Amino acid sequence: MTLWPGGPWLGGTSLETTNHWLSPLQVPALGLHVGGPAMLASQKDFNNAVSQVKLLKEDPGNEVKLKLYALYKQATEGPCNVPKPGMLGFINKTKWDAWNALGSLSKEAARQNYVDLVSRLSASSESPSPEAPAADRKQPESDSLVVTSEDGITTIRLNRPAKKNALTTQMYRDIIAALQAASKDESAITVLTGSGDYYCSGNDLTNFTHLPAGGLEEMARSAAALLRDFVNCFIDFPKPLVAVVNGPAVGISVTILGLFDVVYATDRASFHTPFSHLGQSPEGCSSYTFPKIMGSSKAAEMLLFGKKLTAQEACAQGLVTEVFPDGTFQKEVWARLKAYSKLPPNAMRISKQIIRNREKEKLHAVNAEESSVLRERWQSDECMNAIASFLSRKVKL
Ligand SMILES: CCCCCC/C=C/C(=O)SCCNC(=O)CCNC(=O)[C@H](O)C(C)(C)COP(=O)(O)OP(=O)(O)OC[C@H]1O[C@@H](n2cnc3c(N)ncnc32)[C@H](O)[C@@H]1OP(=O)(O)O
């Protein structure tokens, strides 16, 4: 919805009664000037600003347009003096509210505030956008992650195919940075996928071999903190997040799927969470999301006994949205995502917000608990022995 559908931003309005709930003293809280006439803009400055506003390259958004409207009315007509529109005149009522909220701000101060606001808008529309597509922003520290932005989709690609896209500590950090950037860029949808035949083989087990000066205890502490930050980014990610599961998925790459909005998988994919085999315990909020998604006994079979699911089974249990034949997987999935990326981005964000907000507090609490349990597990003999077995090539999952 736009507040000025099809018309000029500063279109007129017919309004009724006054209702001042925002006093002039509260106006500075909105970043508005209430100072004396000595520092105020001239009528000419104001007229220039009115012309300049029509030349802005970018639509400043409804909130700013509303502020501009209110200041313009205050500067040209003084305090709101027209009747408040009825409930059905929603747009006019919103505009009236904005004007009326300026209370008894003087015409001169309103003029100055209008000029200041337009000058800030002009400056920011001329400088490069801070929300450039991810492809134009700082790339990850290593080649193991590739971030691109195209057709309204930011794609975060795990790119370590020789190691089945196992996640190094640097990759966790780079994914965090990529998600933070994607949450602010211009794309409508964000995708996580993998290069090569695997989606991801989970945590790189050699992460546990780089012991810091503080020893095992310090390693476990810092890994738990990183894990918690990593999962928090998925919990809080504000846009539609889609997993394009291009092959088998193991460990944390499976558990975080419960935090994605949509999961598309090739029929070659499998889903494996061998935590008990590794002397570890679930993470990625799966101890909460999996029982919710698939029921407690199916979740237990995966999370306690490490049952590996085929793509079809994962789909039947609700972890995967849809399975595609491997031969047409990429073509079908990207065509669909391109179409979805054309949907109104704000509507998608808001819908996600409504769905996620109800759960956010719980998810953060679960993440904190899972990370702290793992911190202990990583220092256990069971875990150390399992990792040593993998690294000495005795065990493959
Ligand atoms: C900040 C810390 C947060 C921690 C969060 C907690 C996360 C928990 C988990 O994710 S638990 C799951 C951990 N993952 C695994 O246990 C998988 C281990 N890998 C395997 O079992 C197998 O490699 C396989 C089944 C994934 C694939 O088998 P295969 O097709 O036979 O390939 P290779 O084994 O020959 O693998 C090729 C190459 O990649 C190396 N590699 C694969 N996965 C990992 C891994 N997870 N960690 C380290 N290295 C991995 C493998 O060693 C081979 O390397 P090489 O060619 O021999 O140098």
Automatic annotation (TrEMBL):
CDD domains assigned: ACBP, crotonase-like
Gene3D superfamilies per the UniProt record, alphabetical: 1.20.80.10, 2-enoyl-CoA Hydratase, Chain A, domain 1, Lyase 2-enoyl-coa Hydratase, Chain A, domain 2
The protein's Enzyme Commission number: 5.3.3.8
Domain ACB residues, every copy: 42-127
Location in or out of the cell: Mitochondrion; Peroxisome matrix
Domain of life: Eukaryota
Biased composition (Low complexity): 122-133
One cellular-component annotation, GO: peroxisomal matrix
Catalyzed reactions: (3E)-tetradecenoyl-CoA = (2E)-tetradecenoyl-CoA; a (3Z)-enoyl-CoA = a 4-saturated (2E)-enoyl-CoA; a (3E)-enoyl-CoA = a 4-saturated (2E)-enoyl-CoA; (3E)-nonenoyl-CoA = (2E)-nonenoyl-CoA
Protein keywords: Acetylation, Isomerase, Mitochondrion, Peroxisome, Phosphoprotein, Transit peptide
Involved pathway(s): Lipid metabolism; fatty acid beta-oxidation
Keyword Acetylation: yes
RNA-binding found in the keyword field: no
Annotated segments matching region Disordered: 122-146
Similarity comment: family membership: In the C-terminal section; belongs to the enoyl-CoA hydratase/isomerase family.
Record PANTHER family: ENOYL-COA DELTA ISOMERASE 2, PTHR43684
Known role: Able to isomerize both 3-cis and 3-trans double bonds into the 2-trans form in a range of enoyl-CoA species. Has a preference for 3-trans substrates.
Name of protein: Enoyl-CoA delta isomerase 2
Organism encoding this protein: Bison bison bison
